[in-house]
Amino acid sequence: MSTAIQILHGQARDIGFTVRRLLPQASQRAVGPFVFLDHMGPAHFASGTTENDVRPHPHIGLATVTYLFSGAIIHRDSIGVVQRIEPGAVNWMRAGRGVVHSERIPADIRDNDLDVEGIQMWVALPESQQEEEPVFYHYPATDLPEWEEEGARFHLLVGTWGARSSPVEQPSETFYAAGELQAGARFSFPAHVEERALYVAQGEIEVEGQRIGVGELIVLAPGEPVDVHATQAGRVMLLGGAPLDQPRHMWWNFVSTSRERIEQAAADWEADRFPKVPGEHERIPAPPLLKSRA
After folding, report:
1. Edge-to-edge strand order for the sheet containing 34-43?
2. Domains and CATH numbers, the chain
3. What angle do CA 120, 171, 39 make, to 5 degrees?
4. What is the structure's pLDDT at 292?
5. Over the chain (294 residues), what is each successive 10-residue block's mean pLDDT?
6. Is residue 234 within 8 Å of 182, Cβ to Cβ?
7. What angle do CA 83, 110, 234 make, to 5 degrees?
């Protein structure tokens, strides 16, 4: 039996810089609790401007997980948090009933013309936690388990891998790890992860004789360890966890088990009823709400 369920190709779009979207897609709405995966950059940002900063925008029903390969981002939110995130760290923002945040590029990154590249994920919160108060956690890179084996360096971001455990708080069974691979590196994707996938951010890997290249996400069958071989040096992200407790509706930046809740959130944003981000005076307008797609 093949360990590969399918291979998804990233859908690139230009929002002032390149973003490659892997989840959701029509054939794969989620992997475990992960309902959204964007690979952003590498990108450069003009000095002396706020060009292509992500202005304040709202979320409900999800947790955002930001992980950078290079550069830096300043996070500001309506809880009052201001946090710079740098490579190797994890920003985990649980939106719950509603939060607003911005993501801006620091002046030193712009002035030095440095690459900004990373992964942004959304985790759907369990139904019982969708309406909880928003919270924010920052975990420096040094707080997260890191180790080397057979030509690979791993960084465990969320969940457990063997005897290692991440300190990142999680609302449901979740697994997320980053790997930097030398050419010829070999490793096994842990079998305990029920729904799982592997994203190639750089380089090329081989799984059961199938070559998986840059910008591709391979969704794996559950049950057995999956052997991975790096045919080129590169970078991979491993993700997954327990299946969603219920199907999710998604529209714009909102995730919920209820279409009506998403419609209410859209109305609240339109009417400016979401909390404000201290020090911010801009906002991203919502697109038209298409109820049939919510």
Report:
1. 11-14, 18-23, 34-43, 116-124, 62-70, 90-94, 135-139
2. 4-241 (2.60.120.10)
3. 10
4. 43
5. 81 86 96 98 94 96 97 98 98 97 98 96 96 97 96 97 94 95 96 96 95 96 92 98 96 97 97 97 89 47
6. no
7. 80
